[in-house]
Amino acid sequence: MNTEPAMIPAAKPIIGQDERDAVDRVLASGMVAQGPEVKAFEQEFGAQLAGGRECVAVNSGTSGQHLGMLALGLGAGDEVIVPSFTFAATGNSVAACGATPVFVDVDPETFTLDPAAVEAAITERTVGIQPVHLYGHPAPMDRLVEIAERHGLWIFEDAAQAHGATWQGAQVGTFGRGGMFSLYPTKNMTSGEGGMVSTDSPEYARQIRLLRNQGMEAQYANEVVGFNNRMTDIHAAIGRVQLTKLGAWTARRQELAAFFDAHLTGVVTPVVRPEATHVYHQYTIRIEGATAAERDAFATALREEHKVGCGVYYPTPVHRLATFAVDLELPVTEMLAREVLSLPVHPSVSDADRDRIVATVNTVAAAGA
Predict the structure, then answer these.
(1) Phi, psi at residue 359, to the nearest 5°?
(2) Reported pTM
(3) For residues 192 and 235, is the Cβ–Cβ distance under 8 A?
(4) How many CB atoms lie within 10 A of CB 248?
(5) 274: containing domain
(6) CATH of the domain at 310
(7) Given this model, what pLDDT does residue 220 score?
(8) CATH number of the domain enclosing 50
(9) 291 and 332: one domain?
């Protein structure tokens, strides 16, 4: 008889009968491309997660970033300040417009943009700032907005991992000219695949709608050079169902995080600023002082010896990737890339799983991996 415990996955999309029924409803309707489900999803998402802002649905979070940058007029010769401690899409979205991402360091506790580093990186070519609300903790938006306004810059928020997070009571995705949310399967909610762009500008929203649909508002009346970045009604139907469940899922993530905060030892647990509501897309600890090899050994012990899934987000800073390879020293970013490790915090983690995660991490930490 096999008594080995089951693997606790690092992430686990939750797709139930409600989502299946919604897909069947769309398939039965015969309208599966961009139609009434997409429109309803945009309205519901904006009302619940974007402070009532207008939202535009697209086929991925990366598409939302790319079109969001294009709609801001970003182009060759422009610079946008971005963190290097993030997923590559943050920098890619700038580079794909022909502009230059300027990588700066982050806060060692919240992993989000350091306002002082942002201010120091502004040049005559800087046009915007793209903060990332990494792991579900919002960037310090009051300070970033003040810097942007003082220097005449726009802000476009990367809220891919931060559905429902707030800073000083305001939802992420409501501070800049635009904001992007990802709806990839492992995010806090999903549409199967997809993204959403929020904005306070009707003209900006219209520009993104043109760009996502081959540059057309009316059929064959192409106004700009655009793309096929539309969301389908199938994906929107899934997203609409998930939106109704997000509140309870977020509460469970926060409950798990509070338990981890109280019971984990030998590692650095996440910091939450008083101004912030953290939605814990990831619960990310630090193995303080570890080399990348030591952190990886810690992760291997969790996975292979104790069947606790975990992930490293992100082992290589974006400015170090071959696609950019910028000769730049960002000490906090480099430290975090060596030390971070994300534990399972998704709503499918049971109380028994939760207890096993704590016991395992504490055991491995005490043993020095």
Answers:
(1) -60, -40
(2) 0.97
(3) yes
(4) 10
(5) 246-367
(6) 3.90.1150.10
(7) 86
(8) 3.40.640.10
(9) yes
* β partners of residue 285: 341
Structural domains of the chain, count: 2
Residues 237 and 192 sit within 8 Å (Cβ to Cβ): no
Structure tokens at 111: 């992993």
Q: Check: CB of residue 153 under 8 Å from CB of residue 72.
A: no
pLDDT for 69 equals 96
Query: How does DSSP classify residue 74?
Result: -
Token pair for residue 137?
Answer: 């903790």
Could you give the C-alpha distances from 23 to 43, 228, 306, 326, 336, in angstroms and in order? 19, 22, 37, 45, 41
Q: Are the beta carbons of 257 and 310 closer than 8 angstroms?
A: no
For residue 363, being part of any structural domain is answered with yes
Pick from 184, 212, 241: which residue ends a domain? 241
Q: What is the pLDDT of residue 135?
A: 98
- Shared domain check, 208 and 59: yes
pLDDT score, position 33: 85
199, 298: one domain = no
Q: Is 103 helix (H, G, I), strand (E, B) or coil?
A: strand
Q: So what's the pLDDT on residue 217?
A: 86
pLDDT per 10-residue tile (average), the chain, 369 residues = 82 96 95 91 98 98 97 97 98 98 98 98 98 98 98 98 98 98 97 97 97 90 93 98 98 98 98 98 98 98 97 98 96 98 98 98 90
Residues 6+ apart with CB under 8 A from 37: 26, 233, 234, 236, 237, 240
User: Residue 364 has which token pair?
Assistant: 């491995």
Q: Which of 211, 241, 271 is the last residue of a domain?
A: 241
User: What burial class does residue 214 get, using C-beta atoms within 10 Å of its C-beta: 0-12 exposed, 13-18 middle, 19+ buried?
Assistant: middle
The verdict on 60 and 21 lying in the same domain is yes
Q: Domain check: are 136 and 255 in the same one?
A: no
- Asked if 332 contacts 108 with a C-beta cutoff of 8 angstroms, the reply is yes
